[in-house]
């Protein structure tokens, strides 16, 4: 009787906090990764803030394509800040404890920012499709009001669709295990510690990825198929080259983003015997795009590169040379 009562009481207990152990398999020397992660985080912050300042100060960049790029910069800052400071706290100060509300909030933020980034890539693909396929109607279609409406719709979509993820995770009962062999709160990593059934959590996670990210990816590649068809119909080789060059930087970011998602998903399924690989890819997928998205656009877009030079005060030196 006493044994049964003890088991019942222990099953009703809720762990007060989770412990993030860090990257699995390399706990002894994972602190060496803190320097490159810190440098990538600083690069992401500085580069994306520079993009925002440049777009705000340069009247020539007050166009839908650059407005979407500015929104992407805000999303990248939010995504990196959601994850990297806590990882650095774990690696530098051994601050492995995280409360349940903080963990669920991080799950929500990660899913929201990832979905928002995917949605902005879709908006940018539509922008390039209209610009190339309907150049005369472009100013009347892609207005400032249109950009605001589509951005708010993406915020609403991601905010509502991702909300059940942390809500369902919070409804699970965590009665015994509280150590997460990771350096961030991933939905499935947290719910795997639950003492009750998590079928609904796994189902909604899978449905969310297929509906939101999968839907965006399908529409993005459909847009680029239409863009390629429009470009092939152009009579001038110069016009064809110009049209493709305006899409190149965006296409590079899209391929990198969705390829990384596919790689992370595959490694999570296939890397159960080597958990370090999916965990490391998960972290890199959260910091690499924010760090390198601005660099790709700066290298491939002359207007933005000139804007950077003016903001940084390098335009006089460049003109003298």
According to DSSP, the number of beta strands is 3
- Major sheet, described briefly? 3 strands, mixed
Q: What is the helical fraction, as a range of percent?
A: over 70%
Structural shape: globular
Average pLDDT confidence is 88
Strand order of the largest sheet: 2-1-3
Percent range for β-strand residues: under 5%
Report the radius of gyration as a whole number of Å. 23 Å
Number of helices: 13
Instruction: Give the class from helix and strand content and strand pairing.
Output: mainly alpha
H and E order:
HEHHEHHHHEHHHHHH
Uncertain stretches:
1-10
**Ends: how far apart?**
89 Å
Question: How is the topology of this model organized?
Answer:
Blueprint: H1 2-12, E1 17-20, H2 34-57, H3 64-93, E2 97-99, H4 100-133, H5 138-141, H6 144-161, H7 164-171, E3 179-180, H8 187-191, H9 199-232, H10 237-270, H11 276-300, H12 302-311, H13 315-320
Parallel strand pairs: 1-3
Antiparallel strand pairs: 1-2
Helix pairs in contact: 2-3, 2-11, 2-12, 3-4, 3-11, 4-6, 4-7, 4-9, 4-10, 7-9, 9-10, 10-11, 11-12
């Amino acid at each position: 009787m006493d044994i049964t009562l003890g088991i019942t009481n222990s099953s009703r207990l809720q762990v007060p906090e989770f412990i993030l152990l860090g990257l699995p398999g390399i706990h002894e020397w994972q602190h060496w990764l803190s320097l490159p992660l810190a440098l990538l985080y600083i690069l992401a912050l500085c580069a994306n803030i520079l993009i925002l300042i440049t777009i705000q100060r340069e009247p020539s960049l007050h166009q839908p394509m650059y407005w979407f790029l500015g929104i992407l910069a805000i999303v990248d800052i939010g995504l990196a800040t959601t994850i990297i400071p806590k990882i650095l706290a774990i690696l530098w100060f051994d601050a492995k404890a995280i409360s349940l509300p903080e963990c669920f909030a991080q799950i929500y933020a990660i899913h929201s920012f990832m979905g928002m980034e995917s949605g902005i890539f879709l908006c940018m693909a539509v922008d390039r499709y209209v610009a190339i396929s309907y150049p005369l109607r472009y100013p009347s279609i892609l207005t400032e009001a249109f950009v605001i409406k589509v951005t708010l719709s993406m915020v609403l979509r991601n905010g509502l669709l991702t909300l059940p993820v942390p809500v369902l995770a919070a409804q699970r009962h965590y009665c015994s295990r509280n150590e997460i062999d990771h350096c961030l709160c991933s939905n499935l990593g947290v719910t795997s510690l639950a003492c009750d059934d998590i079928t609904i959590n796994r189902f909604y996670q899978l449905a969310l990825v297929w509906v939101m990210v999968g839907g965006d990816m399908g529409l993005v590649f459909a847009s680029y198929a239409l863009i390629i068809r429009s470009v092939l119909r152009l009579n001038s080789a110069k016009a064809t080259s110009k049209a493709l060059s305006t899409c190149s930087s965006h296409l590079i970011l899209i391929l990198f983003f969705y390829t990384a998602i596919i790689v992370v998903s595959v490694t999570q399924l296939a890397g159960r015997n080597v958990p370090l690989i999916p965990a490391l890819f998960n972290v890199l997928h959260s910091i690499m795009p924010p760090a390198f998205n601005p660099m790709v656009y700066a290298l491939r877009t002359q207007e933005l590169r000139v804007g950077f030079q003016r903001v940084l005060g390098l335009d006089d030196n460049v003109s003298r040379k």
